[in-house]
Amino acid sequence: MPRKALIAANWKMYKTPAEAKAFVEAFLPLVAGHTRDEIALFPSPVLLPTVIAAAAGSHVAVGAQNIHFAEEGAYTGETSVGQLKAVGGTHTLIGHSERRQYFAETDEIVNKKLHTALAHGLIPVVCVGEVLAEREAGQTAAVLKKQIAGALAGITAELAAPLVIAYEPVWAIGTGKTATPEIAVEAHKIIRAEVAKLLGAPVAEELRILYGGSVKPDNATALIGQEEIDGALVGGASLKPDSFTAIVNY
Ligand code: PGA
Q: Is the CB of 232 under 6 A from ligand 1?
């Protein structure tokens, strides 16, 4: 069975509620009837109710860019899984490289967040990827294996069913430097083999691994068209309905 691709928009810290609503209103007619792939939008928390209301009744899912691992508590500035679910969010990114880089998110924190997300029935998209110095030092495989092992500590094959992983080489994010399909496929194979080792071949076979890092309409087909690449996590090119639609229609 081929894996169903997931095409996801990471809007980062962009858009007002009015802009987010206008996006969804323009985007939904453009992807009406598109059933080949799953589509998900990841706006800032303050935009979630607006985007979820605008996408209601459509096949476009909405998730958070980040969640906290605690059920609730004195964590100023954070969003709980319960809060996300209460407004209708179904997915969450975990461990995006910007969270790791600017907010000190470690593999241990990623692992705690993954446990909480899976326990509550969210679809988690765990982000991994090497920085340029690591690639140049020949450490890409070691970095990916460490991030995967860290993220999956204590996760069982049964729990892991909804898991999605996004391979995002940090040197390709927001830089316009996309990984070649060959580089991405090689990394995806390392990730899938590591997941097979930790959770068994059936989980690895079903696992969707997205590519992220300067995905644009003109490189989407070459990347997502690869058998190893099960979709895309798109930042900059997801902010406009036309360019995100062109990627969805790769
Ligand atoms: P980009 O971002 O497409 O702008 O490179 C991808 C991401 O950060 O998920």
A: no
Q: Please identify which residue in the block is written with the tokens 């140049």.
A: 136
Asked if pLDDT for residue 1 goes beyond 80, the answer is no
**Looking up tokens 């083999």, which residue turns up?**
193
Give residue-wise pLDDT tens across range 39-63: 999 999 999 999 999 999 999 999 9
Ligand 1: which of 214, 239, 240, 243 to mutate, judged by most atoms within 8 Å of the beta carbon?
A: 214
Instruction: Please answer whether residues 41 and 61 qualify as being in contact, where contact means their C-beta atoms are separated by less than 8 angstroms.
Output: yes
Asked which of 11-25, 89-103, 165-179, 196-210 is least confident by mean pLDDT, the reply is: 165-179
Residues in the chain: 250
148: its two tokens = 């995967």
CA dihedral 16, 74, 96, 197 (to 10 degrees): -150
In angstroms and rounded to an integer, the radius of gyration of the C-alpha atoms of the chain is: 17
